[in-house]
Amino acid sequence: MNQTVENCRKAKLAIRDTLDVVGGKWKLVLISVLVGGKRGFNELSREAGVSPRILSKELQELEMNGLVSRQVCHTKPVTVQYELTPYSKTLTEVLTAMEKWGTQHRNRIISGM
């Protein structure tokens, strides 16, 4: 690869921007759960295995970045449903590549390298 200093700088900036939006332990896990469709808060907490406090913070950040939408349902008691936005589909290649790499890595570790 023939990378110029400017190309490397731009690549680092782009990677940093991506990690700012989807980095951390939970965001991509939440997105992968929501690929299956709308989920309520408690259902999402259970399926992802994340505490309500952390889930609330992560969902706010995902919503702020346009990846998740929140719908308040006027039921008794009031419930909230979360779902992926059309913009979240732009992460499909990233998720696919991470799943592929993760599977390869796990197999490598299990087989003793």
Supply the number of structural domains.
1
Count of alpha and pi helical runs: 5
- Overall pLDDT: 93
Element order: H for helix, E for strand: HHEHHEEH
- CATH homology group: Winged helix-like DNA-binding domain superfamily/Winged helix DNA-binding domain
Main β-sheet, spatial strand arrangement:
1-3-2
What is the radius of gyration? 17 Å
Q: In total, how many beta strands?
A: 3
What is the beta-strand fraction? 5-15%
Give start-end ranges of low-pLDDT stretches: none
Structural class: alpha+beta
**What fold name stands as the CATH topology?**
Arc Repressor Mutant, subunit A
Give a structural overview:
A hairpin with a 5-residue loop joins strand 2 and strand 3. Helices cover 58% and strands 12% of the residues. The chain is globular and about 60 Å long. The protein has one domain: Orthogonal Bundle (Arc Repressor Mutant, subunit A). The chain is α+β, with helices and mostly antiparallel strands and 113 residues long. Strands 1-3-2 form a three-stranded antiparallel beta sheet.
